[in-house]
Amino acid sequence: MSRVLRPLRTPLGVLTVVTLIILVLVAVLASVLWGDDARLADPSRIAEGPSDDHLFGTDAGGRDILLRTLVATRLSVGMALLATVIGVTVGIALGLLPQLLGPRIARAAASGINIAIAFPSLLLAIVLAVVLGRSAFAAVAAVAAAMAPDFARLTYTMSSSVAGRDFVQAARVLGVPKVVVLLRHVLPNIRDALLVRASISAGICLVAFASLSFLGLGVQAPEFDWGRLLDEGQSRIFVSPASALVPGAAIVLAGLVFTMFGELLAKSLPGAGSRGRSRAARRRHGPLSASTVPTPTGATADSTDASPVLRVRDLTVADADGSVLVDGLSIDVGAGEVLGVVGESGSGKSLTMMAVAGLLDPSLDATASTLEFDGVTLDHAGRVDAERMSRTHGRHLGEHLAVVFQDPMSSLNPAIRVGPQVAEVGRLRHGLGRRAAAGEAVDRLDSVHIPDADRRAHQYPHQFSGGMRQRAMIAMGLMGSPRLVLADEPTTALDVTVQKGVLGLLRDLNREQGTALILVSHDMAVVAAMCHRVMVMYRGRAVEVVDSDDLIAGRVRHPYTHALLDSVPSMQTDRDRPLTTIPEDADFPTGPVDDRTEVTR
Ligand SMILES: Nc1ncnc2c1ncn2[C@@H]1O[C@H](COP(=O)(O)OP(=O)(O)OP(=O)(O)O)[C@@H](O)[C@H]1O
């Protein structure tokens, strides 16, 4: 709270607040106190200069210029605020729209917004005001319409960036409807920047209205706003400068107040960016398997379980240019199994997991001859369509599939307290009431060893440590009945002292509830200790799947797996020589090992 109030204690903050209060008081009271005087013409005092009775003189109707300017505050400020509210609301709705539509329509909508924003907004407002007719209502509609594209662009850009964060992906895995994701997870994280921009825009609106009225397009007689007063006064500016200068000064001052208020808001609000660091990356990976069955396209992480939890055949992911990023991958993971996935950076581990979770970027093209999760076929005529998966199987995936992302800071929505985030699954999936879901969330937080879970549930993610955030993510998965957990480098961002706790939690879940686990990691020691089998990926292909015992003993066959093992230091490593690394230009075969391949290690 003190952080929010700190900017108010600066001289600029005090000045802004005081002037804002004065502006509001004038807008509310001036019409009541001086409305009649400001409207009543006095033919005996037409176009007088400054005097004791009239500080800044009178206008062509003999009315006090100062009083008319004060009385015009309500209409001028009111119209600016109304247009801002309408423009911002419409702009935000338009800016969020592409997130709700399919990729093609979204691109078209985004292009439409870009084209609209290319028009100078004041020019657009003038054109619209002419088209809509001369009235205050038309002016409000015109200024709001001219402002909307700007906000649509801002909203679209910011929401696109937030939509890439892990906590939004996590919400999608849970099957949260798109509109709810936008309102609950995206909008709160861009709200602050929009608020600041809106208050600054209100000042700009004020000038736009003055311009319209000055051109005779806005408020019509007998009503008057500052722009109209300026228009009336400009013809007499050389005889009676105050007639134009007073309303002109009011426009400038009020515009300044709004702008200063916007600046003050910017300093007071923490801002979406500071609440949660953006991480565009998504990584999730690998599964557990049982036997290595070389296939024509790649090694298969194959489960011995008669009815695997996850069954993937010939998964291929290509980008828009046709480059193949994941090439013919086949995986089986059975209940209670842990499959490790290792491989060089960029080998396609995350994309594989994204495809399984239905979180693939729409720009990517994915196909599979089989993609079954927990007895449900997820692919559609060979196409892995994330949109369709979420629509058709969102509920099933949300209940039985849990994802633990790499970066615990970006996995949780920074704008929502941890308890309600964990409780969301209970409310969405199990139809629990707010109170019941909150109670269950506390139980789950407790079960993942969050100390003082009741109190912690009321805290925001930034008040949690990294390890606690990962535990909270796991607690979220436990709100359903997960049959499979995809853990994408879940401990990479954590201190080593915390890693053990998080991995232990995943292992307990696997052992006690028979939950299958796919663990992506670069840490060979972790993989060897945690997993039954390990799938080695290289350039988009599974080149080898090996029992972890064999991995530990070095009984591997593919040259890339050898190279991976050679790069792991051991107690026997010669400390006087540089550690072995895999050269960047190394070119290993991308085909899978088969039974004829000699075990050379
Ligand atoms: N949305 C996308 N559009 C185009 N290419 C992509 C996209 N996402 C990932 N890629 C590319 O696909 C390849 C595999 O990416 P992926 O994230 O699966 O790698 P990874 O094995 O998980 O790497 P790391 O270990 O560094 O996380 C990379 O070359 C990456 O640049």
From TrEMBL:
Membrane-crossing residue ranges in chain numbering: 12-34, 75-97, 109-130, 194-217, 237-261
Region (Disordered): 270-305, 568-601
Protein family (similarity comment): Belongs to the ABC transporter superfamily.
Gene3D superfamilies, A to Z: MetI-like, P-loop containing nucleotide triphosphate hydrolases
Organism: Solicola gregarius
Compositional bias segments (type: Polar residues): 289-305
Location(s) in or outside the cell: Cell membrane; Membrane
Main location: membrane
PROSITE patterns from the UniProt entry: ABC_TM1 (PS50928), ABC_TRANSPORTER_1 (PS00211), ABC_TRANSPORTER_2 (PS50893)
Protein name per the record: Dipeptide/oligopeptide/nickel ABC transporter permease/ATP-binding protein
